[in-house]
Every structure is written in C-alpha cells, then in structure tokens.
Specification:
- The chain is built from 17 helices and 8 strands.
- The chain is mainly alpha-helical.
- The protein has 4 domains: 2-129; 191-288, K Homology domain, type 1 (Ribosomal Protein S8, Chain: A, domain 1); 317-418, Orthogonal Bundle (Hypothetical protein af1432); 428-500, ANL, C-terminal domain (GMP Synthetase, Chain A, domain 3), CATH 3.30.300.
- Strand 6 and strand 7 form a beta hairpin.
- The longest helix has 108 residues, at 30-137.
C-alpha cells in the first residue's frame, strides 16, 4: 500500500507532464509548457519527500520492534537465571543437610562403640576387682598393707618418670634461650686468667723509659702500631713489660715479633713501625710454612696442597687448655695410625685424618661455623680425599661417622686431648678423677658395676635388671649425673649411660 501511494504521484506527474507537452505542442505555447514542467517538478519533489518520510518512519518502527524483542528476551534470561540460582541454592542446602545427617550418624556410631568399650572395660574392671577382693580376703592385714604399698610405690615411680619425661619435653622449647643466657653469664663471669692466657702475649722491655717512646708524641706511635697489626697494645704500670692483646694468635705473634724488633732497634716511629710489621709478617709466614712442613714430616704424611700445609702450620700458635694444637694434631695422627694398624683399617686415611682433624681451628675466628665443618670445607676445596674429609667433619659427631677410620680419628682425638698431663692434669689427679666417677656410680642401689671410659668423659653404669626397671634407669642416669655435678670438678662434660640387660637361658636335655 505504501508503494502505491509513493508511485501514484509520480505516475500522475508523468501523465500531466505528457498532457501538458501535447497541449503545448498543439497550442504552440512555450509558457504553458514551462509551467507544466515546473508543476511536474514540484509534484516529483513532493513525492520524493513523502517517500523519504515513509522510509524513516518504517526504519524507526523496525528499530522499536527489535528493541522491544531484545528487552523481552533479556527479561526472560534474567528470570531463567534467578530460577537456576534458586535451584542451586536448594541443591546446596540439601547436600549440607545430607552431610550433617551423615556426621550425626557417624557420631552416633562412635558413641555407641565407645559405650560398648566402656561397658566392656567396666565388666573387666568389676571382674578384676572381684578377683582382687577374693584374693585379698585370704590375706592378713599386714600382707594386704604391704601389697598395697608396693603397688602404690610402683605406680608413683612410673608416674614420676612419665612426668619427668613430659617436663623435659616441655622445657626443651626453652632450652636454646636459656642456654644462650647461661653462656652469656658464664662468659661475663669468666676469670681473666684463661682469657689472658689465650689472647695475650707479653713483650719484655729493657726499661720503663721505652714505654714513652712506644706511645710516641700524642700517641701517634701506638696508634700506628695498632693500625698496622690489628692488635691492642697495653702499656700500664707493670714494670719492664708491654702486653699485646688479640684473639687471632697469628696477628698477635706478628705484633710481638715486630715490637721486639722495634725495641731492639730503638728507632720507633710510624714509618719504621710499618716496615717492622711487614718484616715480622714475612718472618711469621715462613715460620708457619716451616711448622706445617715439619708436622707433615713428623706424621709421615705427603701430597697435601701448600695452602693446607700453611693453614695447618697456623695451629702452632693455637692452644686449647694449655695444649698446643699442632702437637695435638701430630699426636692424634700417631695414635690413629697405631690403632688402624692394630685393627686392620686403612692406615693412610687414619694418619691424614688424625693430622688434619683440627684444621678448622686455624681459621675458625675468621669464618662462621664449627671448626670441624670449616676444616672439612678447606680440605675438600684443596683436593683432599673424601674419606679424610669425612674423618674431619665427623670427629665431633656433628656428622654421623660412617667409616671405621672416622671412628678411629674420634678415639685418637679423645685420647690425645684427655690423656694425663695433656691439659694441666697430672697422672695422679687423672686416676683420682676416674676412681671418683666410678665410686659415685657404684654408690647407688641396683648398680652392678661401672666403668669410667674415654678418659673420664663417659661413665657406663651396668645395673641389675631385676632391681632397676626402664623408668628407674632413666632416674638413675639423671641422679648419677647430678651427683657428679655436685661432687667433682672436671673440664668439659661427662656423659652418663645406664645399661640394663636382661638375659634368659635354658638347657636342653
């Protein structure tokens, strides 16, 4: 219908135009023709405008219909989504209720089982009580009292041992903090004698007048000396001596040698101090190298890297409880070699492991870690065999010893470090300490015999199994260690081991 309305004016215009043209041609009037054409143009323009208006209106109507359809579809999707969400929520609620029901059923089954076990235990307790009553009824008053006391004693001992284990476990969490506090307190209260012995060297001087020259104008000489050596120079009222203090024994030795040269020369000034320190450093380095090489000759060890030899030589200036560490290493090597030869172990590994076991003590003030770990790292870095490296790392059981040679080095180290006279202890004192350890252990009831081993570092206590049970063995070890702490003075620590062995035998005929 819309197209008919659009085409009708056009057809009319063409008809009018044609008629007008015919009339104009017939009449021969130009004005009539022009007017007819103008009128036809206007009619065509009007028809075109109406067509455009109708197209725009149709397009708008189509857009409105499409928008309405989209809105309706969107509303339907939203409704479907809401319905699906409600269905999911209902399903989740059903699942939760089902799980709750399952838990309730399981709890009910557990309670039922617990009630059955409790009922069974009550029945057994009642039967046991009836049997006990029947047995007690046949006892006298004294027998019943004695049996009751024995039972209470056993229960109390077991309970006390159990509580001790619980208390030890609970206090273990605080052990590190308390240990650090105790260690700090001990260091603070340590007597100056031990510290001075291990960190101080005394240099004699011909007269007290030289002290002023050592100090120099406004202290320039002493400051230059301390800066060049890294040591503290102590000049006090002590007559005819000057004290050199430093925790590094090699630097302290360099400072001692340099100061001796300066005092002997008499010309003490910053330039001369630096020259003397350099010459002393070269001299000490040569001495370290020679000491390391001599230790290799004494221990009959070859094939070590020069850096390992130099590090070993530094132990010449290291002491522990008055024992020179380089001589201790050589002695340990001798002992390890002898033990390995006796039991058929690898002699060369034991020999080298004993010589290098304390290698880390030469540099443990400069690096972080224990001397066993540091020594093992140094030996590994310079191509020492892995068997010897293991002996070094395991000689204090920081690493579990896995070879016979590692155990031999541990034993040789203990023998050398704890033998009579090694650490300011005479043979008589050594024997008296071992006898005192065994006497303390033998004084406790139930002990069959005791042995002080590893030069008094451990006490093995053998008990009678019928007199001491497992809980009693724990109490006995604690009581013996406490008695040793209160009665004796000793270096380091002493391990108490209680051995309880039950043997059964029969004869077949």
């Amino acid at each position: 219908m819309d197209m008919v309305l659009i085409l009708m004016p056009i057809v009319v215009a063409f008809v009018v135009g044609g008629v007008a043209s015919v009339l104009a041609l017939r009449l021969g009037g130009r004005d009539v023709v022009r007017n007819a054409r103008e009128q036809a143009g206007r009619i065509v323009a009007d028809a075109e405008g109406q067509r455009r208006i109708l197209e725009i209106e149709g397009h708008d109507a189509a857009i409105r219909h499409r928008q309405e359809a989209e809105n309706e579809a969107r509303d339907q999707r939203r409704e479907i989504t809401r319905v699906e969400r409600r269905l999911e929520q209902r399903e989740e609620g059903i699942e939760r209720r089902s799980e709750a029901l399952e838990r309730s059923e399981q709890s009910l089954r557990d309670r039922t089982a617990a009630l059955e076990r409790a009922e069974h235990a009550v029945i057994e307790a009642r039967e046991e009580a009836e049997a006990s009553l029947a047995r007690v009824a046949s006892l006298t008053l004294e027998e019943a009292r004695s049996e009751l006391l024995d039972r209470l004693d056993i229960e109390l001992r077991d309970e006390s041992a159990r509580r001790v284990r619980i208390m030890e476990a609970s206090s273990k969490a605080e052990a590190d903090t308390r240990a650090r506090k105790v260690l700090a307190t001990v260091i603070q209260r340590m007597t100056s004698e031990i510290t001075a012995e291990t960190t101080v060297s005394v240099v004699p001087i011909p007269s007290d007048e030289i002290k002023g020259r050592i100090i120099g104008r406004e202290g320039r000489n002493i400051r230059a000396f301390e800066a060049a050596t890294g040591c503290d120079l102590i000049i006090d009222d002590t007559p005819e001596v000057v004290t050199v203090s430093c925790f590094d024994p090699v630097r302290r030795e360099i400072a001692r040698v340099a100061l001796g040269r300066l005092i002997q020369d008499g010309r003490i000034q910053p330039t001369r101090i630096e020259e003397a320190v350099e010459r002393a450093r070269a001299e000490v380095d040569r001495s370290i190298q020679e000491s390391g090489e001599q230790a290799l000759v004494d221990a009959e060890v070859t094939g070590l890297h020069p850096e390992v030899v130099k590090t070993l030589g530094r132990l010449r200036f290291r002491y522990s409880y008055g024992q020179n560490q380089l001589r201790h290493c050589v002695e340990t090597s001798w002992l390890a070699t002898a033990i390995a030869a006796e039991i058929g172990a690898n002699i060369e590994i034991a020999r080298m492991g004993g010589l290098l076991h304390d290698l880390g003590k030469a540099v443990d003030r400069e690096l972080e870690g224990t001397h066993a770990t540091i020594g093992a790292e140094i030996a590994k870095r310079f191509g020492v065999s892995k068997e010897v490296v293991h002996c070094i790392a395991a000689h204090h059981e920081e690493v579990k010893p896995e070879t016979t040679e590692a155990l031999i080095v541990m034993i040789a180290d203990a023998i050398s470090g704890s033998r009579p006279g090694a650490r300011r202890e005479s043979a008589d004192q050594y024997i008296r300490r071992l006898e005192a350890l065994e006497a303390i252990a033998n004084s406790f009831e139930g002990v069959e015999q005791s042995f002080a081993i590893q030069a008094g570092r451990e006490v093995r206590v053998v008990v009678r199994p019928e007199a001491v049970d497992d809980a009693g063995a724990l109490r006995l070890a604690r009581d013996v260690s406490k008695q040793i702490e209160e009665s004796l003075q000793y270096p380091g620590e002493i391990k108490v081991t209680v051995v309880r062995e039950t043997r059964a035998s029969a004869v077949a005929r």
